Amino acid sequence: MENFFLKLSIMLVPALMAITCHEVSHGFIADRLGDRTARFMGRLTLNPLKHLDLFGTLMVFIVGIGWAKPVPVNFGNLRNPKRDMVWVAAAGPITNFTLAFLSAMAMRGLAAAGSMLPDSSPLQMALDPIVLMLAFSVYINLLLGIFNLIPVPPLDGGRVAVGLLPYRQAEALARFEPYGMIVIILLVFFTNIFEKVISPVVDLGISILAGPQSGLVYNVTHFLMR
């Protein structure tokens, strides 16, 4: 039980921020491009309670990947629906990659500063939990960003593909959306897509962003996910 609360204290803030910012970014870009649906429904807020899906949040702590309630977007309200759909969909992963980058830079800076402090000093003890949360933030944001780029609607990668493909192919892929979640569930739970595709790309992102602190991110992630 003690381990559970320790893990929760490290994971909760980065996970909520990653999921919340991902969804708000969709609504924000849609709002800028002509669709006010998210604004009218009170979803352009960083208050995580407005976005949380209970089961999706629990899945973050169980399997390391989760989701929030999708921010509503009426693509018909966009000024150029086919083109603007790409930007609305891409906003989520771009936000996660930005958060991963900022977290990695902050983690590297604080870890370097902490290494110059005496062990068990008050400042060192205050920095340690922040560094651990930043390490998990690097991982969870890379994972969410990369996972959402899978080109299967309703994932963001699928909607980006719909916006980029020629009309006939885009229409065929868009019709696939009602069945997309079934395919995603099958991919996640009944194939080795995580082991063979997603995890190697996440590991590459960690090594690039975290640099000499990559080992810290791997160790924190391994502790939290086991």
UniProtKB/TrEMBL annotation:
Main location: membrane
Cofactor(s), by name: Zn(2+)
Domain Peptidase M50: 16-189
GO BP annotations listed: proteolysis
Membrane topology per record: Multi-pass membrane protein
Family: Belongs to the peptidase M50B family.
Protein known as: Protease, S2P-M50-like family 1
Organism: Geobacter sulfurreducens (strain ATCC 51573 / DSM 12127 / PCA)
